[in-house]
Protein 1
Amino acid sequence: MSSVEASAAVLSPGVHRITLDAAGIPISGLLSTPALALPRATIVALHGAGMSAAYFHGRAHPDVSLLSTATRLGYAVLALDRPGYGASADALPDGQSLTDQADTVRAALADFTTDNETGAGMFLLGHSFGGKLALTLATEGEFRGVDVSGCGHLYNEDTETKMWQRNWGDLQLYPPGTFARAGAAVDSTPILELVDAAAWPQTFAELADRIRIPVRFSFAEQEKWWRTDDVALADLAALLASAPRRGLTRVPQAGHNISLGWAARAYHTSALAFFETCLLDRAAA
């Protein structure tokens, strides 16, 4: 069964640490719930490689946290430490493949729903490698929609860009104190993720047609990991032909780690607007 503990000295009011039982694997994360008795819906947030659930609750500025922004608008947010991170790191020192991560997260969510109301259902929001996991999860299950940032389908083959530029872009895009506080969000990357990351273009081509829920891709203006030219984005949209609603958007004044930057509030509210549209589509069906 899931367990929730308050950590007022570390987290903001209303944000709690949670540990879920994923068929014997402990999956930790952060949970934020609105004041409403029933949340409008629940967002399952999945962080990128080398990060943690704290990525979605940046503390450098009040506007940065997805958990705080979404909760004020009536949504619950469950930001998970993906398998191989947080509480599961000891049990999964090498991490898991994308397929196994999806199975583990589904088991964790089954445990979550035994004790928690989800409102109109669950949405997926994934960043970078967490976007790969969100898209894998989106091929099965009763999710209402999926929003992905920092993840495309074709890697940018530019070899001259330095690693920190790929991950962050212009450092002025982030609030003062971001990098001093980044330790809470940063973690080591399990080896199995590196294997799956290399195979992602082929993996996506195989799973894209199985995504039959609304999907949106958000690309930072200074995204360096992925091809975001018009030809690549047209190909991406074509591969998602089975999705009932498709969105491709660019986020101005943002680097790869959108949810830690000044553009976080704009991105998070646009993702929530997309989820609202998904709820309207469902109500009208």
Note: The chain has a mean pLDDT of 92.
Protein 2
Amino acid sequence: MNIHNLTSDKRIWAFNNLGEYLKQQPNDWAELATRVSAQNSWFTPIAVQMALKAIAQNLNTEKLTQWLAPYLPLLDTPTTKTVGLVLAGNIPLVGFHDVLVALIAGFNVQIKLSSDDNQLIPFLLDKLIHIEPNFASFINYTDRLKNFDIVIATGSNNTSRYFEYYFREVPYIIRKNRNSVAVIQGNESKAQLTQLGHDLFDYFGLGCRNVSKLYVPEQYNFNLFFEAISSFSEVSHHHKYHNNYDYNKSIYLVNGNKHLDNGFLLLKEDERLASPLAVAYYQTYNHFEQLTTLLDHQKDQIQCVVSTSPLSVNIPRFPFGQSQQPALDDYADGVNTLDFLAQNR
């Protein structure tokens, strides 16, 4: 049997078993996390475990079945097409969802790993192959994509232009830089603001789902916010994070830029979305209608919004603390990759 004869039920079964394996937190993860951290110091063992937990919570039969249901029986129709995947590596396993979508939809995959994250995905896929050996001959790694039929590539705003030209002959999804924002209304509890700390500091703020910009009411007092996030001060123990904090603080002091500082996070009023590491920009608003208009104008640059209240804008919204725990159908850039592959079988 090969993957083209693996029914969707078989594929779901295999990924469910992979999820069960991850939930067991086996001893071999400790060794792997040590190796990964030695190669990329941003990928601390805690960050690796956080990424694994977020993936594992989605890999169960019920969630996978519900996710795939609208595309059956189409996904049981055999295909010989190959999906080329150019993966990012800014946070651990950030490219796993693309791999999952392509394999569970029944495609061959050709994977170009990021040099910053070239151990974790192969480790997971080795476990998947151990669970279901028929996946083996349909998972290939490469330094340069070739002989592909479809492409899903993630990069920067600069590399996206190269991708769009290079992959112009095939159906593609090309992702660019995006940032996430938080909306503070001023009536949040300390506990809620503490949860917002996860959106700011998980993975040291390196992910596109991490909050880089705060929208706050005019005259907002940040005292409760700073008190609420004080438990995240340990990020400053990481030498690279602390170096970024020191550097940006020095720049602001030398230039006389007005800013707030709690010892590990700098807040600066700025209309831009993408803030430097260890900095969060903030911007004030008068009323929700004004804010909705502002966000709508920037929706193509925003990955998600974290807020305690719904907003009438077409951007994925998460409760405080949940931005780095996307569900299976929380697609990057709002582009449904499963639908894209189903339509290009």
Note: Residues 213 and 345 are 39 Å apart (CA to CA).
Protein 3
Amino acid sequence: MSDALLEIEGLRAGYGDSQVLFGLDLRIAAGEVATLLGRNGMGKSTTLRCLTGWLAPNGGRIRFAGEDVTGWRADRIARLGLAIVPEGRQIFPNLSVLEHLRAFEANRCRATEPWTVERVFALFPRLKERESNMGQQLSGGEQQMLAIGRALVTNPRLLVLDEATEGLAPLIREDIWRCLDTLRQAGQTILVVDKYVKRLIRLADRHSILERGQVVWRGDSAALATDQGLWHRHLGV
């Protein structure tokens, strides 16, 4: 499809003799917010590793921003406009907030209204207050804000968030959801992996549920909200 930013077809991948993905298909249109749902061990992390170039698939195809990126290195995919907010945040402990953002600031995709350090500080005023603090001096919520800001200043075509609200206090978690809603309204294409289904229904356009390395259901938020049997069969909630 002409409006597809990301197309994954028949993706197969694993680790050594252990196969994890068995012909996974996924499509995200430009400007869409999509989710990848499923219980632990169903292939979500492996899918993201293939997408971001950290794991080479052993079958299938990944097409992103008009390019077949199957098997590309992570840095090359990133330069094409993919940014991930990784599980665990992976903040550098010995860099300040400002140094983190300055180090990653770029506009390779030539956005007309690019994300800058100043825009990130406007989105997360708490980071502005702590711009000279080192990564190790930030709370978990502040580190998560910084991880999102660090991804945004690369001005990605696709923003991927892997368990971005995991382990956060409820109030901080809501700050993250509000941020994602702001990005959605601005037209940012987003792929979210998270477990808070009720909140994702309010945020996302479309959802895909994984079971044993394959997509077993896909649909919009209205369909997911009305069939809570899906939640119990595939999500354990």
Note: Residues 170-185 form the longest helix (16 residues).
